[in-house]
Task: structure prediction
Amino acid sequence: MSAVTFKVRIDNTGATIDCARDSTILTAAVLAGVKFPYACATGNCATCICELRAGSVELLPHGDGALSARQKAAGLTLACRAQPRSDLEVHWLGEPLAG
Result:
C-alpha cells in the first residue's frame, strides 16, 4: 500500500511539492529543495510560521510561544509541525534561507 500524499503549493516560490500525510510541510519542502525559512524545526521558534491559505493540517505538539491559539484561529501554522490532511496552499511569513 502506498503512502497518502498531498500537493502543497508554496506561494512565495510558486513551487508545488508532494507531502506525505505523515510528513511535515517543512520536511517535504527541504527535501524538494525549497529554501523554506526555519531554525529549530521543533515548533519552538516560529521561524517557519506561515499562513495556511487553503486546505487543512494537523499540528504536532509545539510551544505556545511559537504559535498561539489566536494565531491558529487567524489561519497561521508552523510548517515544521504541520502535517497535511488535504492539498494545501501556504505562504511563509519569515525570511527565506540564504544561498
Summary: The two ends are 38 Å apart (CA to CA). The mean pLDDT is 92.
